[in-house]
Design brief:
The chain is an alpha/beta fold and 244 residues long. Helices cover 29% and strands 23% of the residues. It has a single domain, classed as Rossmann fold, CATH 3.40.50. The chain contains nine helices and 13 strands. Strands 7-6-3-11-12-13 form a six-stranded parallel β-sheet, sandwiched between helices. A three-stranded antiparallel β-sheet has the order 9-8-10. Strand 8 and strand 9 form a beta hairpin. It is elongated, with a radius of gyration of 19 Å.
């Protein structure tokens, strides 16, 4: 479906469809750490213990406490200039943000259409029915914490609304549809190393203009991709100079 914007001459202009695909690099500049910062450790925990299906089944209390701490860290963080500039793109383009990040910094910056591939930190869900999803602030008995034993309306315990390693990525189908319809595809703050998310690049039509903003882009990147080898904040500033 095309999106139209009314202009002063009482005519309508079609907005170009633009997909922004973001990764950990954009959140890192707001102080959000990832496991890749420390060789497989995430805030001194093994990724297998706190971000895998096996870790959840082995020690759910540890996992819940870990994500409680991540929420506290997120509340203290603020969207950075890269997040805000992506919002600015909506003035000219029909923008959909597809993100690998579980934080809500895009939404807090003002982006209106955000699709999270790997879940959302500020939400939890039932372990009995994955469609029962709750905002943490609406269900927590203690601010933003979810404790072992807190239960959903069906009586089952709650778990983070996070796609753990070893689990399917439900929003991949929707993300692929967005990319196949895009006329412009901007990749920001990701090394394209996490699959299946990284495979989104393969779904961009041949005539789609593709831009990659990252200080460490993959080797042997296709020659049809315009590279901006800088961190997100400065790189997105240059991106807007090109397309904004």
């Amino acid at each position: 479906m095309q999106v139209y914007v009314k202009i002063t001459t009482n005519k309508y202009m079609i907005k170009t469809k633009l997909v922004v695909f973001t990764g950990a690099g954009i959140s890192a500049e707001s102080g959000i750490k990832t496991f890749r910062d420390a060789g497989g450790l995430w805030e001194e925990h093994r990724v297998e213990d706190v971000a895998s299906a096996e870790g959840w089944h082995r020690n759910p209390e540890l996992v819940l406490n870990f994500y409680n701490a991540r929420r506290k860290q997120l509340i203290e963080a603020e969207p950075n200039e890269a997040h805000r500039l992506i919002v600015k793109l909506e003035e000219k383009y029909d923008v959909n943000v597809v993100t690998q990040n579980v934080d809500n910094l895009h939404e807090r910056a003002g982006s209106t259409k955000v699709l999270h591939l790997h879940g959302e930190l500020m939400k939890v869900r039932s372990t009995k029915d994955e469609n029962l999803i709750y905002n943490v602030v609406d269900i927590s008995k203690n601010g933003i914490d979810i404790n072992f034993g807190d239960r959903c309306e069906l009586g089952s315990i709650l778990r983070p609304h996070i796609v753990f390693f070893g689990e399917a990525v439900p929003n991949m189908v929707a993300a692929i549809k967005l990319v196949t319809d895009a006329k412009m595809f901007c990749i920001i703050g990701t090394s394209l190393a996490v699959y299946p998310a990284a495979s989104l690049l393969n779904y961009a039509p041949v005539d789609t203009k593709i831009y990659l903003v990252d200080p460490n882009p993959p080797q042997n990147i296709s020659s049809n991709i315009y590279l901006i080898t800088e961190k997100a904040t400065t790189g997105v500033t240059k991106l807007l100079e090109l397309i904004g």
